[in-house]
């Protein structure tokens, strides 16, 4: 049993599980770029739906396991803490991409609509928390609404990607979504898709191990569930998004990088749906703590700042990063300080 391991072995298992998730995600990013070209779905859509969902799998396993064990705070903070951490990764990627502001270069209508949908999806749990404590068969009605809204958002994003009603102003720093190989679109996507599915299975298994270790940290060392969920398991299970973002930026697939983060965050809202279904002591939204609510607000605020950056498209700010990156770094740092001091 993982929970019975001595601390050195426990940390080693945690590190190995995290490494397996990260290395699988690196390969998955390359395959996602190939799948985007061969299926002609586009980098923003593949990044937002397929890659975003795959790299989020480890996180959803953590939240579901926490909810099944009755720890609502762990489940909730892991979900919303991951959204905040992944949004921060775009600010770090902006620091690394030296040619121009990343949000300027990766102009894509599908990313804008996904950011809007993410803000809507994050607002729904907030309404549930502020509303009456109700649950039917142990599930809050907002979880059903959130799931249906997510499906509608995916459909709307696909429509915007295929038939955009407006296009961004093209500049010398704007990168377009074009296949790297002109022959790529004529090849079959079956092989890359099967390898991609195998990597997803590895990420899911890694997520289960991380959830077991995280629960052990809470029980053995008396750590707060919100602290472990938002700053330990959420960050570790979000590392695939960080790696895939850096790999995508390095490959010049900027729409894939931005779309992967926003789409992954959108998918992460479904952690709350899965956790509410798994939590058997009533509504998940009324069983979590104040610090968990703070991380929900942090994720919502950072998404709003990111959306403003995607719309404003500041070309070059201080050190060639946009105002949104500076603001997101500041917001996340304040949230971490408050969590640690709390």
UniProtKB/TrEMBL annotation:
BP GO annotations: transmembrane transport
Entries under InterPro entries matching the protein: NaCa_Exmemb, NCX_ion-bd_dom_sf
The keyword ATP-binding is annotated on this UniProt entry: no
Chain positions covered by the region annotation Disordered: 169-189
Record's protein name: Cation:H+ antiporter
Topology within the bilayer: Multi-pass membrane protein
Annotated organism of origin: Limimaricola pyoseonensis
Residue ranges of domain Sodium/calcium exchanger membrane region in the record: 10-128, 197-338
Pfam families per record: Na_Ca_ex
Spans traversing the lipid bilayer: 6-26, 46-68, 74-97, 109-131, 137-158, 196-215, 227-249, 256-274, 294-312, 321-341
Keywords annotated in UniProt: Membrane, Transmembrane, Transmembrane helix
Taxonomy, superkingdom: Bacteria
Subcellular location as annotated: Membrane
Any Gene Ontology CC annotation: membrane
Signal peptide (UniProt feature, chain positions): none
């Amino acid at each position: 049993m993982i929970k019975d391991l001595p601390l050195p072995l426990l940390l080693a298992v945690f590190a190995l599980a995290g490494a397996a998730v990260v290395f699988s995600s690196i390969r998955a990013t390359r395959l996602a770029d190939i799948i985007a070209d061969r299926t002609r779905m586009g980098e923003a859509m593949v990044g937002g739906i397929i890659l975003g969902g795959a790299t989020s799998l480890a996180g959803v396993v953590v939240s579901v396991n926490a909810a099944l064990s009755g720890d609502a705070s762990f489940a909730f903070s892991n979900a919303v803490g991951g959204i905040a951490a992944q949004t921060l990764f775009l600010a770090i990627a902006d620091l690394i991409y030296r040619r121009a502001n990343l949000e300027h270069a990766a102009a894509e209508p599908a990313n804008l609509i996904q950011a809007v949908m993410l803000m809507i999806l994050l607002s729904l749990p907030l309404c549930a928390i502020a509303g009456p404590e109700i649950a039917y068969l142990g599930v809050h009605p907002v979880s059903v609404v959130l799931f249906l809204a997510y499906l509608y958002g995916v459909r709307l994003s696909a429509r915007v990607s295929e038939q955009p009603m407006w296009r961004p102003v093209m500049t010398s720093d704007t990168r377009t979504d074009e296949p790297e190989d002109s022959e790529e679109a004529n090849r079959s996507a079956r092989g890359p898709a099967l390898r991609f599915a195998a990597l997803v299975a590895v990420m899911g298994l890694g997520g289960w191990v991380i959830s077991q270790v995280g629960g052990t940290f809470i029980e053995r060392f008396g750590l707060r569930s919100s602290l472990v969920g938002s700053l330990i398991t959420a960050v570790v299970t979000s590392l695939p998004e960080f790696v895939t973002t850096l790999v995508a930026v390095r490959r010049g697939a900027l729409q894939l990088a931005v779309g992967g983060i926003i789409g992954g965050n959108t998918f992460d809202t479904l952690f709350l749906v899965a956790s509410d279904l798994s939590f058997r002591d009533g509504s998940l939204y009324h069983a979590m703590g104040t610090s968990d609510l703070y991380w929900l607000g942090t994720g919502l605020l950072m998404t709003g700042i990111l959306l403003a950056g995607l719309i404003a498209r500041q070309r070059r700010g201080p050190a060639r990063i946009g105002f949104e990156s500076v603001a997101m770094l500041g917001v996340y740092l304040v949230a971490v300080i408050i969590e640690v001091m709390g």
